[in-house]
Amino acid sequence: MCHFITLIIHKNFVSELTEVMKDYRRLISTIDNASVADVLMTGEQQFLLSGKHCDCGTVLSFSQTKISDEDFSKDLTRLKRKGWSQSKLDRWLKDRLKTSNRVSGGSGPDSLSMWKDVVERLLNIEGINNVGILLHFYSGSVDDESFEVARKTFSVSHLEEVLADFPSDSVVTFIRNNPP
């Protein structure tokens, strides 16, 4: 059905989360998915960030949707018929794969820089020591769907590399480098 991204922070910081997400035109709403609740720490709450809209096309799902050379087989056949040499075809394919698999900052509903900024801004708020993000492809209700959820924790110093290869079905928690 659809990808949805939820954010996990301590429930005492709802107003701060609301303010940060307003800058990205995202509305927050509390959800209580039992599968996710199993991996939350005391006081943490899960928040849906997209209102009634899904997050299909998110850059966070990019690592699961890479383009392969098979996706260009018709183009390659057509170019061969036009008389292109094998080396020219190889260069063309290499360029297309590189371009198609590049994470762009503005073509989808979000960008890696947006998520990086959200996490960093939240972690810069006094009292917030960790921020979790969950990406899941829901086939039912975000509140009721049952699925296996893992929890992975990373220092914020690894934020960019984790966002670029984001895992599904894991609460990916970023912690401050030096929590107070």
UniProtKB/TrEMBL annotation:
Protein name stated in the entry: Uncharacterized protein
Organism field: Hirschia baltica (strain ATCC 49814 / DSM 5838 / IFAM 1418)
Lineage per the UniProt record: Bacteria, Pseudomonadati, Pseudomonadota, Alphaproteobacteria, Hyphomonadales
